[in-house]
Specification:
The complex is a heterodimer of chains A (262) and B (437). With 262 residues, chain A is an alpha/beta fold. Chain A has 13 helices and five strands. Chain B is built from 15 helices and 14 strands. In chain B, the strands form five sheets. Chain B has a four-stranded mixed sheet, with helices on one face. Chain B has a three-stranded antiparallel sheet with strand order 6-7-8, with helices on one face. Chain B has a three-stranded antiparallel sheet with strand order 11-12-13. Classes of the chains: A alpha/beta (262), B alpha+beta (437).
Chain lengths: 262, 437
């Protein structure tokens, strides 16, 4: 290894409970991949390489939520090894779809899926990384946007703040001149309370936003709930709308629990 | 863990697979005493939390089982629900779903062939290191993969967890012009896939064959994606609805993924090798011809050659995509309305890694009351262990570091997706002297 290579920042990518999709986003950046990996030393990324160096690392990216006792310990260790820790995707930033267990009896869940429940070890809650350790930046999305990932990568290497907007999906619809499907067609849409990042995909495909990027900066979920009711949605449907991939984020959680009549 | 007469290898995490698992092999003298493919990927309980959700949400929710093959989950979910509710789809929607699957196969197979599997054959830790010596090869891989993703993005809005597939059809379908714009890329991709197949044929393969029960879909006119009977080379010939009468899932202590076996017979193999061996006659001529050129003789029983078969399947997917793009006329409506009603339905589709089974039961409000999902990697799990039991015997005399790399490679023959199987890999080889008789 040349002396120049030694000064490249050491990058590690860790996986917790997740689908692997967010780390795959890096490999999906086909045009940028070779340049990105040329600028850094990827020293821990089991999905892509057998090379697995022990820390410390300059930047650690974490995908996935904490759902087991072992992972609750492992995230502490990961934090200690990483100068900068960045979480990527809805599992890591909000607990992911697997956080739907948080409103249910997880022991009953285990019995539904596994014949010998005593062999399965899991926590009652699926929680985001920031509930366990301090996190330097959270990149939202289910999945994350690969261009935002590259922006984050570049900004972090340059030591500047990444340009990741926190306004709503509505702004993206306006920008791409998509006619508002909630207003024009009465389609229930989470766009007004959801953070931008996907490019307002769903409305451009004639369907309502279903909240992949989690709550925007200051979401007015109460107003949207009234709007959903006005469109004829019953509370059971509104609960489901807020209980998606970012269900455990506190804003969406409060919104769904407010419509639940137990 | 090293005692007298015992040698142990530990590799903490098995790399270049999707998800987290480990391998444990115990060698006693010349004998392989134990093989366990351990899957410690945390359980996520999809089948449990799908209950109470509306059927229209199942394609989006189950896609999140796997970021590498979300379309497979969407397709199996949609087809199972459509069967439960008696939905009839437009023939063009059927064609678009095939095109959607072509995109996923191209993207997923290219990722595995070049970036996850080839480095083993060429002795690199990863594709990035491989790119230093084989830049043009890796660039070809990235461009090919990108074209697969382009198809997925056009139909589904984005590569990972696409948003357009729906029960009854698509939320929105592309225009004729949008599909025509793919032609130039697809023609390049077809050539690149043929080059890929020839390139894999030059790799070195260990002389290792197994007597498999191959299980795949079979359709009267097509290489299978979404439809067909489930068949095997040992006489299986069933409808998806009969799947659970013939296959059993077992919960074993060392794995968070359930093991599947054919009732009364044992392990079986799903994925490219099975599809190729059972459906060679349904491949387009260009794929059959390159198979002959690279000397892939039927039946392929060497699992290491799956890299060649995967490349032939990329050839197929490119040719099929070109065919569909050429004959596409937009359907009268992107999707048919599917009213709420009670029902039970099963479907099997061919994910890149093999058959993916879904079953759903809905109540009269369209809410899911029961779901069952059996991904390809849990079906292959026991078969991977069986391969290793045999393969590890040949490695008894090898240095432990090399032996463990070879075992990892043997696991990667299956392109295992452990995130799917739990709905990873650490290698441990333990050696003990044989007890004296």
């Amino acid at each position: 290894m040349s002396s120049k290579a030694k000064h490249k920042p050491k990058i590690a990518i860790f996986k917790f409970a997740s689908c692997d999709g967010c780390q795959l986003s890096l490999l999906d950046a086909e045009d940028e991949l070779l340049d990105v990996v040329g600028a850094v030393d990827i020293v821990y990324f089991p999905e892509a390489t057998r090379t697995m160096l022990n820390g410390p690392y300059d930047i650690g990216f974490v995908e996935g939520s904490v759902t087991t006792h072992q992972d609750a310990q492992r995230i502490q260790e990961v934090r200690r090894k990483c100068k900068t820790l960045i979480t990527i995707g809805a599992c890591a930033t909000a607990g992911g779809i697997q956080a739907l267990r948080n409103w249910k009896d997880v022991d009953e869940f285990i019995r539904v899926v596994y014949a010998t429940p005593m062999w399965i070890s899991t926590l009652k809650l699926s929680t985001p990384i920031a509930e366990h350790v301090p996190v330097d930046f959270e990149l939202r999305g289910c999945p994350i946007n690969k261009y935002q990932l590259i922006e984050l990568f570049t900004a972090t290497l340059a030591g500047r703040k990444p340009n990741i907007p926190t306004h709503s999906v509505c702004m993206e619809c306006k920008r791409r001149a998509t006619v508002c499907i909630a207003v024009a067609r009465g389609t229930p849409c989470l766009g007004p309370v959801t953070q931008a990042g996907c490019g307002a995909l769903c409305p451009s495909y004639d369907r309502g936003c279903y909240g992949c990027y989690g709550p925007m900066e200051t979401p007015n979920t109460a107003s949207l709930t009234s709007q959903f009711r006005a469109l004829g949605q019953v509370d059971e449907q509104i609960v489901r709308a807020f209980r998606g991939f970012n269900a455990w984020s506190w804003q969406f959680r409060k919104a769904s629990e407010g419509c639940e009549h137990l | 863990m090293s005692g007298r007469g015992t040698k142990t290898i530990r590799v903490d995490t098995l790399a270049r697979v999707e998800g987290e698992g480990s391998l444990y092999i115990k060698l006693v003298g010349e004998r392989v005493a134990d093989v366990k493919l351990k899957i410690y990927e945390p359980p996520r309980f999809f089948e449990a939390f799908l209950r109470g959700r509306h059927f229209s949400e199942a394609p989006d929710i189950t896609a999140r089982i796997c970021g590498i093959c979300p379309i497979a989950y969407q397709m199996s979910a949609i087809h199972a629900i459509e069967r439960a509710l008696g939905t009839r789809i437009d023939p063009t929607v059927r064609l678009l779903r095939r095109l959607f699957y072509c995109g996923e196969w191209i993207e997923s197979h290219t990722l595995h062939v070049y970036m996850l599997h080839a480095p083993d054959f060429l002795g690199y830790q990863d594709a990035i290191a491989m790119a230093r010596d084989h830049r043009a090869v890796v660039e070809r891989a990235l461009r090919l993969k990108k074209i697969g993703n382009r198809i997925v993005t056009l139909l589904g809005g984005r590569e990972i967890h696409p948003i357009s597939a729906a029960v009854g059809g698509f939320y929105k379908v592309p225009t004729k012009q949008q599909l025509r714009e793919l032609v130039e890329d697809l023609e390049w991709a077809l050539d690149a896939s043929l080059e890929t197949a020839r390139w894999t044929a030059n790799l070195e393969f260990p002389d290792f064959e197994q007597d498999y029960e191959f299980v795949a879909l079979r359709h009267p006119d097509e290489y299978p994606f979404n439809e067909g009977r489930l068949v095997s080379n040992r006489g299986l010939d069933i409808d998806a609805a009969e799947y659970e009468d013939h296959f059993v899932e077992m919960h074993v202590k060392h794995s968070n993924a359930l093991h599947s076996v054919v009732r009364g017979r044992g392990s079986y193999l799903v994925g490219p090798l099975a599809r190729f061996n059972l459906n060679f006659d349904k491949l387009p001529e260009v794929a059959r011809q390159v198979s002959r050129e690279i000397k892939l003789a039927l039946p392929v029983k060497n699992p290491f050659r799956s890299i060649m078969v995967r490349s032939v399947e990329i050839v197929f997917a490119c040719a099929e995509a070109l065919r569909i793009v050429g004959e596409y006329e937009p359907p009268p409506t992107p999707r048919v309305e599917v009213p709420n009603q009670a029902g039970v339905g099963q479907a099997i589709t061919e994910a890149p890694r093999g058959i993916l089974y879904h079953r759903y039961a809905m109540d009269e409000k369209g809410l899911i009351i029961a779901a069952k999902i059996i991904p390809p990697t849990s079906q292959n799990q026991k078969r991977i262990e069986d391969d290793l039991r045999d393969y590890a015997m040949r490695l008894v005399a090898w240095p432990l570091e090399e032996a463990s790399w070879k075992c990892e490679q043997a696991i990667r023959n299956y392109d295992p997706c452990i995130s799917c199987a739990t709905h990873s890999l650490k290698v441990v080889i333990e050696r003990e002297e044989a007890p004296r008789e």
